[in-house]
Amino acid sequence: MDYSLKNTALLFIDIINDFQFDGGDKLVKHTEQILPNLIRLKKFASENHLPIIYVNDHYGLWNANPSKIINHCWNDKSKKIIDELKPAERDYFFIKPQHSAFFQTPLKSLLNDLEKTHLIIAGIAGDICVLFSAKDAYMYKFSMHIPKNCMASEEKEGNDYALYLMHSVMKAKIDRI
């Protein structure tokens, strides 16, 4: 799978999160463990002028305004992650109604307009929303790099199995950044 940075975009899946659900304590712990890698990935994308696209749950607000979603999600569990990774002014931000970043969102249209054919995908939960997004990206024929140290799930086993599927079935590169 050959790609160059000129045809690459970074997708951050559900990075803005309130962690207020069953299993949220586990997910925030695992997300904090990969936070330095996510920060490094965002810096790399910014320095190389890659589009950074956040696709996020809507939390019942149905509002694609990042500030409203951030304000809703910001709490003692999430503030460290949000403060480090919140979207910059130049970044894109979409909300999604279901697990996939592509389902009923303008993501594919944006990627086509930007002429991006390769995606670096990072975020949470790896065994749900990242997996569903990777499946759709594969169906749309995007090549992918899903760094194994930039994805977290509530359970390590689920995360590892999702990585296995994305690598073996969807042909994603999963090496660390």
TrEMBL record:
The record's listing under CDD domains reads: cysteine_hydrolases
Molecular function, one GO term: hydrolase activity
Lineage top rank: taxon: Bacteria
One Pfam family in the UniProt entry: Isochorismatase
Q: Keyword set for this entry?
A: Hydrolase
Q: Does the keyword Hydrolase apply?
A: yes
Q: Does the keyword Hydrolase apply?
A: yes
Q: Where is the Isochorismatase-like domain?
A: 8-167
UniProt record similarity statement? Belongs to the isochorismatase family.
Protein name per the record? Nicotinamidase-related amidase
